Amino acid sequence: METENRKDDTHVSTDKLDRKWIDVNIPCSAACPVMTDIPGYIQAIKEGDYEKAYHINRMENILPGVLGRVCDRPCEPACRHGWDGLGDPVSICFLKRAAADFGMKPVCAEIKPNGKNVCIIGAGPAGLTAANDLALKGYGVTILEQFDQPGGMLRYGIPQFRLPHDVVTEDVKSITDLGVTIKTNVRIENTGRIEELRKDYDAVILAGGCANPKHTTLPGVDSKGAYWGLDFMIAANREELDIPLENVIVIGGGFTAVDCTRMSYRMGAKKITLAYRRMKKDMYVGAHELEVMESEGIDTISLVSAVTILSNDEGVVTGVEFIHNSINEERKIAPISGSEFVMEADTVIFAVGQEADDKVAETENAVRKSVFYVAGDFRNGSSTVIEAVADGRKVAREVHMQLSNIKGFKETIHISEVKDTGRKRDYDFIPIQHMDTTPMRNRQIKNMEVETGYSKEKSVTEAKRCYLCHYNYQIDISRCIYCLACIDVMPVDCIKMAKDIEVTEDGNLNYVETKNWSEVEAITIDNDKCIRCGNCVRACPVDCISISKYKLETEEEK
Length: 558
Known about the structure:
By secondary structure, the chain is an alpha/beta fold. It is globular and about 90 Å long. α8 (125-136) links the parallel β3 and β4. A 5-stranded antiparallel beta sheet has the order 1-2-19-24-20. Strands 5-4-3-6-18 form a 5-stranded parallel beta sheet, with helices on both faces. It starts with a strand and ends with a strand. The protein contains 20 helices and 24 strands. α7 packs across α18 (456-464). Among the domains are: 117-211 and 356-405, FAD/NAD(P)-binding domain; 214-353, FAD/NAD(P)-binding domain; 471-557, Alpha-Beta Plaits (2-Layer Sandwich). InterPro entries: 4Fe4S_Fe-S-bd (IPR017896), 4Fe4S_Fe_S_CS (IPR017900), DPD_II (IPR028261), FAD/NAD-bd_sf (IPR036188), FAD/NAD-binding_dom (IPR023753), Helical_ferredxn (IPR009051). Keywords: Iron, Iron-sulfur, Metal-binding. Pfam families: Fer4 (PF00037), Fer4_20 (PF14691), Pyr_redox_2 (PF07992). GO terms for molecular function: iron-sulfur cluster binding; metal ion binding; oxidoreductase activity.
């Protein structure tokens, strides 16, 4: 194992087995596109240190207030607490919000200017992240934003009842506080303008996002009362939409579709239906978003595709003709002949995804030039906020590598010895803490936030549920006397008598559990089942069980 001492109690490792340990044993962080130290900030909340929890989030995923509300939560399905027989996953996203609600403070980084300047086109999550990371490296950063406020779709594509504007403003301010300049109402129309920017800056990053809705050639789509989902949301968010709604059908299965249904509810619609061509479980939203939507009385119909938008002689929408779909084992869908049916509607909203500006093809030649980069949804297509953040960071590193002549970035694992995790067995029996919400009687107040946030008490209680998977319990076989004291006190079946032990080249520990004393080669701890309570450490008479804390860091390679 390649290690070095950085502190008396910390080793820094670049060993691939230590790196793999993190991916295997901290599944929530491994599932996060930016590898946020989730157990680290949750433990800080458990200890009441909200500023530390905020700082971890702020340095790793940049937008804690925003992501604490609208992240699609890839970490939560991966959480060990949600595995079979262990209950509900920890509410990681809600805890991120608590860190921002109670611990937000300026970054106060010590920045040494390096004399180089970068221009970023687009102030959405990818552009903001790239700006943040480059500013911390000493670059002068200017962002050009086409709208009158920064944030991109965070501000104009997501409704305030999910993400209030002041939350976006606060997260953006933490970036401009680093010296980043944002110029609004500046739209870059063509590659000629990009060429001009390349002469004025050391590098240009295009992070324009996917602001254009995907269109369809469906008959009747131009009828009065038919809208594109993103256009509908942007107009509603900018208070530019004043239309009577009665019976609304939203076609789509993503976040924008769900937001359109809920916005329609707040605009007075009496009947709202979300129509999706696949099954509900295939929708590009989490179960939480669907639960909140359905609690507001919005219906869902699955396995249907629109055939025609129906209208009257004046060209006004009157309904939608659908056809039922079947879905096979390969997850391919097909219309069922003769299954057409009609649903009445006065408004139809197509929320079937977004795409980048149609001038993307014009930028392909420019991409090959050494100081021009493309980031986020503009390059990858419509994605989630946290995925856009991850790509903004990736591109910022590419820019820094080229302009600063460093070799690249390397991942290091900081391993520190600890005596106790502070976790107790009783924490396993704490039920999930549900988010407080605005009463239904107030849900039609258009911009009132529905989820009101955890109290400090609730956040600490929920944080206690975390297994703190960044702690690694290990038994020193050379000191173990096989007294079984650890097995006697283990609250779950996590310590095994093992034989036929093998460590594979890629770091997997394979063994066969045995109850036969004559076959025992070692006593081992199963990290998948360990609840980090420390009973075994306290019971061991020869002090052969150690606890190590693992933390992933990224450093420059000079």
